[in-house]
Design brief:
14 strands; Immunoglobulin-like; single chain; 2 domains
């Protein structure tokens, strides 16, 4: 009887251990582990340190960033963004598209696009409503579309630059005069006041001079010269800047 009692206790204990083990095992199998796509991508790329970013916009030559502080700032902001499967864009409809490559320390590179999101190969990050994505895009656009970089396009031999006077007469601007115009553009000041911008543009509906920059017969830059104080620049018919500078006086003397 005493032996049977111990056997009974052993069987009960063994059964408890088995039931507990099955419960624990099932609990482990039923547990869901979420892995964020951006964690996967960043761990894949972070093995190499980004050392250079080369990018461009339509009609503009590549622009290169090799400043480590700027690159790491962009990379850190990018790593915070939510990720999802990349949806290809209609590039013909997106004048705002930025494309380029991120180069890494190990010699590899990854293609990226920025429009409504920041896409690196198969994944996209953020959206047009995301502050970090808009920050990166804005900084890149500021570099490509800076007054200094725009002045270089006046001197780009792939482009044709035509001037229009009072919407009737037109003239081809030669290289020597383009150098002078480029210097005037670089030395001008960008106006940031929305009140001032609105007042100047609305008050000068018929600019006396207009300068068009064309590539393969496609106009992509337009300079509207309003008076001796102001002129504006448009990129593919989209307003970029109002600048304070006297291009008009030079055009009057020359043409």
């Amino acid at each position: 009887m005493k032996i049977n009692k111990y056997v009974y206790i052993f069987v009960i204990s063994l059964a408890f251990v088995v039931v507990l083990g099955i419960y624990t095992l099932n609990k482990s199998f039923n547990k869901v582990n979420f892995i964020q796509d951006n964690d996967i991508l960043m761990s894949r790329y972070s093995s190499s340190t980004p050392v250079k970013i080369v990018f461009s916009m339509k009609y503009f030559p590549p622009y290169e960033i090799d400043d480590s502080k700027i690159i790491l700032d962009f990379w850190n902001r990018l790593s915070k963004l939510p990720a999802y499967k990349h949806i290809p864009l209609d590039k013909d409809q997106d004048y705002d598209l930025i494309t380029g490559y991120i180069y890494f320390l190990d010699g590899s590179k990854k293609h990226f696009e920025i429009s409504e999101s920041f896409s690196i190969e198969e994944l996209s990050y953020g959206s047009s409503k995301n502050e970090e994505m808009n920050y990166i895009k804005s900084k890149m656009k500021d570099l490509i579309l800076s007054a200094e970089n725009l002045s270089k396009e006046l001197l780009n031999e792939e482009n044709k630059v035509i001037g229009f006077k009072n919407e009737n007469d037109y003239f081809i601007i030669n290289h020597y005069n383009l150098i002078e115009l480029a210097n005037l553009l670089k030395s001008s000041t960008i106006i940031t006041s929305t009140d001032e911008i609105g007042k100047v543009i609305q008050g000068n509906p018929n600019p006396p001079y207009l300068i068009s920059v064309l590539r393969d017969e496609n106009q992509f830059l337009t300079i509207n010269v309003y008076n001796e104080d102001y002129f504006s620049i448009y990129y593919i018919n989209n307003f970029l800047y109002l600048l304070k500078g006297d291009i008009l006086s030079y055009l009057k003397i020359t043409y």
